[in-house]
Amino acid sequence: MVTFGHPKGNSLPGVLLRELAAAFTDLGSRPHVKVISLRSVHDGPFCAGASFDELAAIRTEAEGKEFFLGFAHVILAMIRCPKPIVTRVQGKVVGGGVGLVAASDYVLATEHSGVRLSELAVGIGPFVVGPVVERKVGPGAFGAMALDADWRSARWALDAGLYSQVHDTVPALNSAYEGFVAHLAAASSDATAEIKRVLWSGTGDWDDLLDARAALSGRLVLSPQTRAAIAAFKSGE
User: Fold this and answer.
1) What Å distances lie between residue 186 and 31, 48, 129, 189, 210, CA to CA?
2) Residue 64: inside a domain, yes or no?
3) Is residue 207 part of a domain?
4) What is the value of pTM for the model shown?
5) Of the candidates 27, 130, 139, which has an alpha carbon nearest to the alpha carbon of residue 83?
6) Which pLDDT score, from 0 to 100, does residue 231 have?
């Protein structure tokens, strides 16, 4: 099991992103591991996305690119891990957290697990998570999410392909989650590895793509409009 948590809405500072990427790479290399479960540890949001403290501290394009590469490395580690990744989503998902969901192979959520790509609201854009989100929901839905930066319901996410199951309550979610993880653990590891390979075929060029997207985000995060938006968000915390 891979777990993550942060006092601010299970947000994702750089150190946590590095730990997540390392965990998926390590577990994927272990022969006895059949399935990897992912969940956040606090009640409330599943993931609030990027750390605004770290976004506010970025001073150069190189620092910005390095920060956004943290999300790229997690996404690449998840889609290239040969084990299926099953994710439990108990609450709302924002920004980079939507990237974690989209890079998962099977996602179970509650009715309270709305999704939002909020990056444009602070003058950036969902560039690094974009390829994996677009792959799941399609270009039209991704474009709408990126441009209106608005909330979408868990049922919308189910219909769009981000979620695989949606449950009314957390207890029902937990029961279904544990049951599905056990189901995959009992399945043929060779077969699940081949299914995963097929699911993520065509992503061989994503190292270069996500590197370029991280550089773009690192440049945009330094714009005066974005700095002002981040400062305004932090002042309202």
Assistant:
1) 14, 33, 31, 8, 34
2) yes
3) yes
4) 0.95
5) 27
6) 84
